[in-house]
């Protein structure tokens, strides 16, 4: 599967706390546009599951992206677009709308808001998580204060979910 991964530098996006969505105080969200080639004769979701799993990101799922603003305060998340396309607002209501399409990967540090605004009928997303952290789903103002305490405690993963131990995530997400 490694032969299906292109070498490229990610786009980095930083989002401020908007009072509802805390976002991450230090680490940017990374987007790898078109990083994974998806041949027609292979299950595209399986490709993402294999790439993420080979780099220690597991507990994968296949679905879409929720149509409401939410974030995870106790774990990082990677989203691989296996099929279709979507407009997703990252960072909360004051964040940035990005069109993601098949072959793209977005890596969200804990606290990064995300919401599907629109999607093609065939949208299929593969999500996965690093081995550290605990899944949670935050979406209301009553969770904001606790999230601000939890987010900085989520450690940096040992591997980039796309490139492994030498990936750009490790440089972009410096400890400290």
From TrEMBL:
CDD domains: cupin_YjlB-like. InterPro entries: RmlC-like_jellyroll, RmlC_Cupin_sf, UCP019307_cupin, YjiB-like. It comes from the Bacteria. This is Cupin. It comes from Mesorhizobium hawassense.
